[in-house]
Amino acid sequence: FVSQPVPGKYILVTGGAGFIGSHTVLQLCRNGHDVVVVDNLCNSVEDSVKRVEIITGKKVPFYLCDVRNKEDLTKVFDKYDFWAVIHFAGLKSVAESFKIPDVYMQNNTEATRILVDCMMEHDVHNIVFSSSATLYGYGRGKDLLTEDCNIEPINPYGESKYKAEQIITEKMKSFEKGQACFLRYFNPIGADVTGLIGENPKDIPNNLIPYITQTLVGRREILSVFGNDYNTPDGTCVRDYIHITDLADGHLAALEKLRENEVNRNGASAPIDDRTLIYNMGNGNGFSVLEIVAAMSKAAGKQVPYKIAERRRGDVDRLVASSAKANKELKWFTKYNIEQMCADAWRWQSTNPEGYDNPSEYILNLL
Ligand code: NAD
Ligand code: WQD
User: Which residue intervals define the domain NAD(P)-binding in the entry (predicted)?
Assistant: First the structure.
């Protein structure tokens, strides 16, 4: 996918050292954009950004900055002429959000308010926001979830993201020329094909794929499959997995849409109710936990050790996206299948068993 940079302007990526952020920064650089990253490194390391610089040969200024800190954020806005912000920074563990809901509200909702205030004060009109399929809650009665499905967050994490969407929508109404795009991701997995960057959670992984890959390299003993009595063909939950590079490209497609709208309006503001666009980002195919275990075992050439365990609080039978709206309006289509997603996840973890720490011979030769 090719997205055109706006000459002389930068893209600010918050949370750009994280999993989705670093892959998006990489795709932005590959498309010639000038990117600035802010991140507080609460769930990432700066090495991810350094590796993007190595892969692309492009400099990516990095600022250790918490989005909740308006003073620090303002300094970054004062320094660069941004055309758009891609806002990834936030916390994403559903389980943790039940324990510390206030912290989720601060990091995901209030931080978003502060960021948009900074944008408005600096006349930065465009924002792409990381939203989530978790907003659809139980996804009741729908084979494929569309953007107009009921919003019913069933955990504090989902509530914090939905409130952030609402804040952005409200603020855009009083922001001349402002426009926002919410991308509701399903289950991003995999890694860049170079194997140089990938998913690197700081604590014990909550998500399925990093738990599996860390088990395969011996960092975890055995995968617990959370429940096999769901209303699905093999009894384990079904999800819509999307390759991280496809998802990263979705952000470039969103930027391109905002840019196109800006050009088409010839400098005028969008009507008040048209300032926010919403798109699902998924594949439209569902895979069960056991199907993923089989696909990862095949990619790694060894069986993933697993046991069936109790259900996990808050899990639902099936969440699969319709991404028809993004296909049509953003001209964005996924390219990678489940075998490629698993192969790339495995390339990353097998060559970087400790994430960005202690790089293997193979990685050292590439760096
Ligand atoms: P991640 O944890 O790898 O990345 C988030 C980044 O934000 C990290 O680098 C972290 O250090 C940083 N961060 C957190 N709070 C911050 C703050 N207050 N100030 C500055 N930096 C901060 O997670 P990810 O998977 O890359 O997710 C990125 C975004 O996408 C998140 O907002 C997440 O909620 C959302 N999302 C993720 C998924 C998923 O399955 N990975 C699905 C839907 C939505
Ligand atoms: C996938 C499946 C688990 C771990 C979460 C958020 C969602 C979005 C994506 C942010 C489920 C099962 C998992 C394990 C398992 N994130 N599993 N053993 O729950 O679909 O979505 O991440 O917005 O909002 O809820 O993803 O990777 O945690 O789980 O059996 O050790 O794997 O029960 O069925 P999930 P996941």
Answer: 12-344
